[in-house]
Amino acid sequence: MTPAELNQQEEHLFDVMSGQRFLNMEGLSNEVPFFIYPYDPENAEEVMKARKRIANRLRQKGIIVRQIDLYSLSVEILKNRGVWSRLIGMESNQNKDEFCELIQGMLDPQTHLAPAIRERLADGAFDIVFLTGIGEVYPYIRSHTVLNNLQSVVVDKPMLMFFPGRYDQSDTLGSSLVLFGRLKDDQYYRAKDIREQEA
After folding, report:
1. Bridge-partner residues for 193, per DSSP?
2. Which of 50, 88, 151, 187 is buried most, with the most CB atoms less than 10 Å from its CB?
3. Helices (H), the chain
4. Residue 50, helix vs strand vs coil
């Protein structure tokens, strides 16, 4: 994607998220207020900078963004449980599949991630949630399981997930998240592509 196209998308995201339609979650047809911004993983650094600029510009308009970085949150959960250092020491000697399974259990979205995110959103002092770090936590945490478990957590504010990959939507095949543009994470049909939203 060219710098001009990225800049155009950044402006569109800002226009959509600063609008009352988005903030009031209008036109969702009783769906969850989840939006996805899929982007080419090669543009990750530019998207990160754009995300910060958008959050700053929204703040200037009195719109507060609460960012949840899944990677930082996962590390914090593991450190709080007192297993982080042990896991780091085990990683090189452990079978990859077994190690992945071990961490998946420790970071189960229903029992660990969703409650931790609920805690971070409990004060309600924000208008929009940014969910980031999706690529960094793969394969330990899958984006569709996080979204499924957040449906009862993020209910009264819109949430935008920054997704390094594609969000394929098809009338016949349904919608699916394709991480890094190569790995089909799973089907997830409840989120809307923010690029298709009207400002």
Report:
1. 36
2. 50
3. 3-17, 20-23, 44-60, 70-80, 84-91, 96-106, 114-121, 143-150
4. helix
Tokens read off for 132: 């980031």
Cβ–Cβ < 8 Å for 72, 120? no
Q: Is the pTM of this model over 0.90?
A: no
Residues 6+ apart with CB under 8 A from 102: 87, 94
Cα Rg of the chain, angstroms: 17
In this structure, are strands 159-170 and 174-179 parallel, antiparallel, or unpaired? antiparallel
pLDDT in tens, the chain (199 residues): 788 888 999 999 999 999 999 998 887 776 778 899 999 889 999 999 999 999 999 999 999 999 999 999 999 999 998 888 888 888 778 888 888 888 888 888 899 999 999 999 999 899 999 999 988 888 788 777 888 888 888 878 999 999 888 776 665 555 666 666 555 555 556 778 898 888 7
Angle at 141 between CA 81 and CA 64, to 5 degrees: 85
What's 127's DSSP letter?
S
How far is residue 193 from each of residues 52, 70, 106, 108, 161, measured CA to CA in Å? 20, 20, 30, 26, 10
CA 13 → CA 38, 61, 64, 126, 146, distances in Å?
12, 14, 15, 17, 22
